[in-house]
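Subject: Protein record for review, amino acid sequence with backbone structure tokens
How to read it: Take the token row as a discrete description of the fold.
Enclosed: The protein record, placed directly beneath this head.
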Amino acid sequence: MATPTVRRLQLGNELRHARQKAGFEQHEAAKELDCADSKISRLELGQGGITKGDLKLLLEFYGVDPADMQWMFELARTRSTRGRWTGYRAVFPEWFRMYVDLETDAESIRHAQTEIVPGLLQTESYIRALHPGSVRADDGSVDRVIESRQERQNLMDRTEPPVMRFILSESCLRRKVGDDAVMREQLSHLEKTAQRDDVDIQVMPFDAATQTGGISYDFTILQIPTSGISSSLEFVYVECFDDARYLDDKDAVAMYDRLWSRLQAAALGPKESQDLIRSVGQQYS
């Protein structure tokens, strides 16, 4: 079963889809529940819980088939997230925790990155070399950072891992983190990971012939499956220094999807990217 955060988002998505399919506005749904319009809005955004009785009223009002209701009742049984972010997991800042939940339940992850290797692909020695230079006051001890990062990386070892696509600026390969041994190990790990069937790594070379300005934007597109009546959830995650944006508006997602397609077309192919990774790695021998 999905994480509590993702279950709320899935339920909100299902409720919004059911309401729109039935042809109702939010204020009409609020009238049926005898509540404020803002409650319906929060429910559809995955920002609030709902009782089984109220959920049943809404679903009947929307004319949802009883066969489809059970899935939504299961989603509504969201357990508290209290305790989930204790211990080494507390190293995750609050604004990043939603991303960890989304990443955990994603069926597809597309990540564009500049300057440093993405967290899912980092080796332990690379993480250790990065940590002393951190300027975030709440980053915690390096051991806690490593544990939390490695827990995220465990999703790659699941029976059915998500399909992962990475577009990395060549600067990710050449930005020296730690000593030569750290970089040699990290690039070797990248090359081996790129050979997996469920992972594609493409590199945007410095001398790319096509327009590549979009590579200056770091972003992640995540697709979350659903077993209900609506389509999969799609989010774009954009991280800032002390905060993050989670975009699920269809126009915003479509814009980043187009940007991804442009970057993918401009980057080296997977095989050529592996060759470049190997070549740069040999420079640290």
Summary: The two ends are 45 Å apart (CA to CA). Residues 4 and 78 are 5 Å apart (CA to CA). The beta strands are 108-113, 163-169, 199-204, 219-224, 233-239, 244-247.
